[in-house]
Amino acid sequence: MTNKVSKAERTRQFIIETTATIFNTKGYAGTSLADLTEATGLTKGSIYGNFDSKEDVALAVFDHNLAKVKLAVQQRMEKATSNAEKLLVYADVYRSFIRTSFLPGGCPILNTATEADDTNSLLKDRAAKAILDWKKTNIDLLKAGIKSGEFHDTTETERIALSIIALIEGGVMIARVTNNPASLDKVLKTVELLIRQAQVVNE
């Protein structure tokens, strides 16, 4: 049996998809209700008939944009043949934020964390959870690599997991602010070096 999507659910998804780029580009504070009504062609009443507030829309949009990132990561990880390659998938995906229009506005985690740090606790919590989930994935991959003999058993999993995130997000920020994608490439080489140094070299 085919599950039918209600009109309200379709409208809600339309609002999310239509405003996703606006929020990710202009930020929560920079996005006005007029931006939302103009982009969707809907009235204020229609938008607030599906969402409690602009913040409610922003939260749904963050989840939507993050899901796109996770899907891109998942698809590439499925093709990776080692834990090291899986860790490097994040570098490849985040490089696309700079070099392609994969997700206009860039990384939703970085954008949201930077803006919502002291101004919006709900958005800050969403970004924090995304980072902690990313950290856990990195640690799990490193531990799996240690167990299989791919990484040294002395590998500091949490330190490397956090360093990968910090380097990638910092590299994306620097590249965007300076409009210099080559900066990200340099940082990503450090990410690769960090991962390679943890690997066991079989001679």
From TrEMBL:
SUPFAM superfamilies to which the protein is assigned, alphabetical: Homeodomain-like, Tetracyclin repressor-like, C-terminal domain
A Pfam family that the UniProt record links to this protein: TetR_C_13
Gene3D superfamilies: Tetracycline Repressor, domain 2
Protein's UniProt keywords contain DNA-binding: yes
Residue ranges of every copy of the HTH tetR-type domain listed in the record: 9-69
Keywords of the record: DNA-binding, Transcription, Transcription regulation
Membrane-spanning intervals of the chain: none
InterPro entries in the record: Homeodomain-like_sf, HTH_TetR, Tet_transcr_reg_TetR-rel_C_sf, TetR_C
GO molecular function: DNA binding
Keyword DNA repair: no
Record-annotated DNA-binding residue ranges: 32-51
Name the UniProt record assigns to this protein: TetR/AcrR family transcriptional regulator
Species per Swiss-Prot/TrEMBL record: Spirosoma agri
Lineage: Bacteria, Pseudomonadati, Bacteroidota, Cytophagia, Cytophagales
